[in-house]
Automatic annotation (TrEMBL):
Residues 4-133 form the CMP/dCMP-type deaminase domain. This is Cytidine deaminase. The active site is at E58. Belongs to the cytidine and deoxycytidylate deaminase family. It catalyses: cytidine + H2O + H(+) = uridine + NH4(+); 2'-deoxycytidine + H2O + H(+) = 2'-deoxyuridine + NH4(+). GO terms for molecular function: cytidine deaminase activity; zinc ion binding. Keywords: Hydrolase, Metal-binding, Zinc. Coiled coil: none annotated. The gene is cdd. This enzyme scavenges exogenous and endogenous cytidine and 2'-deoxycytidine for UMP synthesis. It is an enzyme of class 3 (hydrolase). GO terms for cellular component: cytosol.
Amino acid sequence: MTAEQEKTLVQKAIEATAGAYVPYSGFRVGACVLGEDGEFYTGFNVENSSYGATICGERTAILHMLASGKSRKMRALAIASTMGKDLSCCGICRQFMVEFIESGDMPIYASDMQGNFEKTTYDEIMPKAFASFKATAQG
Ligand code: THU
């Protein structure tokens, strides 16, 4: 990731917060993934009156990438919210992501609304992730 790519990814995640549908929590989360095709795909959280049906910003961005038909794997992810670096992807998103990461050292940036961010990696937040496709690949 170049410094310019990092800045673009984070900026797009910040801008994506505008689309959030958050009538229940009022908490906007914007996300942006960099696909293996070099394109940026944004997402935001979409809540539901049946709370468990809520979709996080991270998963919306990944679905945006998949729906483009141009990329099946992501190279980086940024999330933005008023929580800044303290926003950490939820457990469902961590598990969801395992199917669509290019590698475990994929960077994850958590930013505030001014673009100040902290960087972690997928493996750091989800060590020993379960992925049944690994078992299948080994027979
Ligand atoms: N949320 C996200 O979109 N991403 C996260 O990483 C954590 C939580 C959303 C879900 C819900 O709409 C709101 O934040 C409050 O939990």
